[in-house]
Write a structure and sequence with these properties.
Layout (H helix, E strand, L loop, with lengths): L5 H32 L3 H11 L11 H8 L3 H13 L3 E5 L7 E5 L1 H25 L6 H9 L5
Antiparallel strand pairs: 1-2
Helix pairs in contact: 1-5, 2-5, 3-4
Length: 152
């Protein structure tokens, strides 16, 4: 395969379209969350993921799992957790069965904020997808996203 191979060119164009769709969606949601709730997309994502934890078996995520869920490095996730902890939205505690493990919980204030921000996030996502669907290059990707049935 050469750099001018049509298969590679199509693949690169598809990747560029996917990247453009992601960028548009993220920027639209970012503006909405910042304006309405003083939250970034990353902050909202972290609060959302952590708010879904539970006290049952396997209900709490380790920091590596949290980093994977919000698609950040472990060090970036730790910095993000620290910022939200400083704002009183998260708290850390030692794992009761493994003192080396540290878990993070959303505080009541964090739960209120993510609950208030969820409709904003959802509406901004819908708006961004609707706008992107008007673009012939992005419309198939929008349909693919809409057809996914991924559990939270």
């Amino acid at each position: 395969m050469t750099a001018t191979d049509p298969a590679l060119t199509a693949l690169a164009q598809g990747w560029c379209a996917l990247s453009a769709l992601h960028g548009r969606i993220e920027a639209h949601i970012e503006r909405a969350l910042q304006a309405g709730h003083d939250l970034s997309v990353r902050e909202y994502s972290l609060l959302d993921v952590l708010s879904r934890q539970h006290d049952g078996e396997g209900g709490h995520l380790q920091m590596k799992q949290v980093a994977d869920a919000v698609v950040l490095s472990q060090s970036a996730t730790t910095r993000l957790v620290t910022r939200l902890e400083d704002r009183g939205l998260l708290e850390r505690y030692l794992c009761p069965t493994d003192r080396r493990g540290i878990y993070t919980n959303v505080t009541p204030a964090g739960l209120r904020l993510v609950d208030e921000a969820r409709p904003t996030n959802d509406a901004a996502l819908r708006e961004a997808l609707d706008e992107a669907s008007k673009n012939a290059e992005l419309a198939p990707l929008v349909r693919a996203v809409e057809s996914l049935n991924v559990p939270a």
